[in-house]
C-alpha cells in the first residue's frame, strides 16, 4: 500500500532572543509521518487501485529545542486530512520490476489555538479545503526471490492548496517539494507471514510563495514489524497486526528572513525540529477481493522544536485487477 500525504503544517516554536520570548512560525516539511508501517515494500497487483486514508494529528504540548515542554504556553493544535490515492500498475515489467505511478488528492482541515501565560499574546487559526497534491510519476517495485519486496521512486508536491503569506486559514504549503522515496519489506519466515518493513523519504523544498524563505530539507523514516494471522483456514480472511513507528528530522537550515513583530529574523536561527513515535497497526485483508482495511495509532515519545502529539490513521484500499487472459478450450481426444 502507498498511503502518503504531503501537507504543510504551520506550528509554533519558541526561542529566546536577547531575553525576549518570540513565537515563530516553524518552516515544517511536507511529509506528515504515520503514513506507512506494515507492507512498506509491497505494491498492488497489476490493475488500478484506489485507497482512502484519513489521518488525524493532535497535540497539546509544545516542546523546545531540548525536548522539554515550554511552560507558560497553552493551547492545542490538530488537523484532519482525507487522502484519495489512485495507483496504476501495468502488467508488463520495466527494468525487471513493476511500474507504479500514483497521485494523491487531499482535503485538509486544521486548527491552532495558543496563548502565552502572563501576556496578551494569543493566536489562533484554522482552515479547510483542497490541499497540496502529491504526484509520484516514477516508482518501480521489485521482488527479490521470496524474501524481499523493494520499491524506489521520485515524487513531487504541487502547491495546489490555498496559501497566502500571513493568513490564518491556509491549507497549502505555498511551495514545491521534491522527494526521493523507498520502501522495503523483508519476509522473516518462509511462509511470508512475519515481516520487517522500512520506508524512507528525503524531501527538498522550493521557496515559499510571497517570501524569500526556503524551508530546510528533511528526512523521514517509518518502520514496522508485522505478523499475519489467518481468520479462516482457507486463508480467505486474514488479520495482520504489528508494531510500527516513525522518525523525522530536519537536516539542513532554512534560508531567508522571517519577520516577527516587525523584526527581521534569519530563518537559519530557528532550531531544527525532529520527532520520534511508536505505535500499533492492524489490517483486515480479503485476498480474493483485493480489499484491505487498516487502522494505525502512533504516540510521539520525543519531539524537538515542535508539538509533541499523537496520530490516528484509518482507511482502506481496493484493487480492480486486469482480467486474466482466457485459456483456449482443451482439445477433444
Task: Explain what you see.
The chain starts with 10 loop residues before the first strand and ends in a 12-residue tail after the last strand. By secondary structure, the protein is mainly beta. It has no helices and 18 strands. It has one domain: Autotransporter beta-domain (Lipocalin, Beta Barrel). Residues 1-25 and 118-124 have low confidence and may be disordered. The protein has strands spanning 11-17, 20-26, 47-62, 73-89, 98-99, 102-116, 122-130, 133-144, 148-158, 177-187, 194-205, 218-230, 238-250, 257-260, 263-266, 274-286, 291-304, 307-321.
List the helices and strands and how they pair.
Blueprint: E1 11-17, E2 20-26, E3 47-62, E4 73-89, E5 98-99, E6 102-116, E7 122-130, E8 133-144, E9 148-158, E10 177-187, E11 194-205, E12 218-230, E13 238-250, E14 257-260, E15 263-266, E16 274-286, E17 291-304, E18 307-321
Antiparallel strand pairs: 1-2, 3-4, 3-18, 4-6, 5-8, 6-7, 6-8, 8-9, 9-10, 10-11, 11-12, 12-13, 13-16, 14-15, 16-17, 17-18
Structure characteristics:
333 residues, mainly beta, Lipocalin, 12-stranded antiparallel β-barrel, two-stranded antiparallel sheet, 18 strands, globular, disordered N terminus
Outline: globular
Provide the residue-averaged pLDDT: 84
Alpha-carbon distance between the two ends = 47 Å
Structural class: mainly beta
Amino acid at each position: 500500500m502507498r498511503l502518503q500525504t504531503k501537507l504543510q503544517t504551520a506550528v509554533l516554536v519558541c526561542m529566546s532572543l536577547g531575553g525576549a520570548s518570540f513565537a515563530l512560525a516553524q518552516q515544517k516539511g511536507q511529509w506528515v509521518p504515520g503514513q506507512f508501517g506494515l507492507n512498506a515494500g509491497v505494491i498492488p497487483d497489476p490493475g488500478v487501485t484506489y485507497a482512502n486514508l484519513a489521518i488525524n494529528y493532535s497535540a497539546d504540548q509544545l516542546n523546545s529545542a531540548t525536548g522539554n515542554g515550554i511552560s507558560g504556553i497553552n493551547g492545542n493544535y490538530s488537523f484532519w486530512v482525507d487522502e484519495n490515492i489512485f495507483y496504476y500498475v501495468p502488467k508488463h515489467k520495466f527494468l525487471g520490476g513493476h511500474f507504479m505511478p500514483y497521485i494523491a488528492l487531499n482535503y485538509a482541515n486544521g486548527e491552532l489555538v495558543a496563548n502565552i501565560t502572563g501576556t496578551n499574546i494569543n493566536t489562533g487559526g484554522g482552515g479547510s479545503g483542497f490541499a497540496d497534491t502529491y504526484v509520484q510519476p516514477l516508482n518501480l517495485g521489485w521482488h527479490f526471490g521470496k524474501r524481499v519486496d523493494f520499491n524506489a521512486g521520485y515524487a513531487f508536491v504541487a502547491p495546489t492548496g490555498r496559501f497566502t503569506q500571513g493568513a490564518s486559514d491556509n491549507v497549502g504549503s505555498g511551495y514545491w517539494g521534491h522527494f526521493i522515496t523507498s520502501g522495503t519489506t523483508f519476509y522473516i519466515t518462509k511462509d511470508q507471514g512475519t515481516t520487517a518493513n522500512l520506508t524512507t523519504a528525503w524531501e527538498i523544498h522550493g521557496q515559499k510563495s510571497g517570501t524569500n524563505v526556503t524551508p530546510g530539507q528533511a528526512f523521514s523514516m517509518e518502520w514496522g514489524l508485522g505478523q499475519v494471522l489467518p481468520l479462516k483456514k482457507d486463508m480467505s480472511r486474514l488479520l495482520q497486526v504489528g508494531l510500527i513507528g516513525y522518525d523525522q528530522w530536519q537536516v539542513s537550515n532554512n534560508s531567508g528572513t522571517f519577520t516577527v513583530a516587525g523584526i527581521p529574523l534569519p530563518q537559519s536561527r530557528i532550531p531544527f525540529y525532529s520527532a520520534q513515535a511508536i505505535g500499533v497497526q492492524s489490517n483486515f485483508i480479503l485476498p480474493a477481493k483485493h480489499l484491505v482495511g487498516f487502522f494505525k495509532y502512533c504516540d510521539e515519545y520525543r519531539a524537538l522544536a515542535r508539538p509533541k502529539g499523537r496520530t490516528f490513521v484509518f482507511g482502506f484500499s481496493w484493487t480492480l485487477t486486469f482480467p486474466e487472459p482466457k485459456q483456449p478450450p482443451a482439445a477433444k481426444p
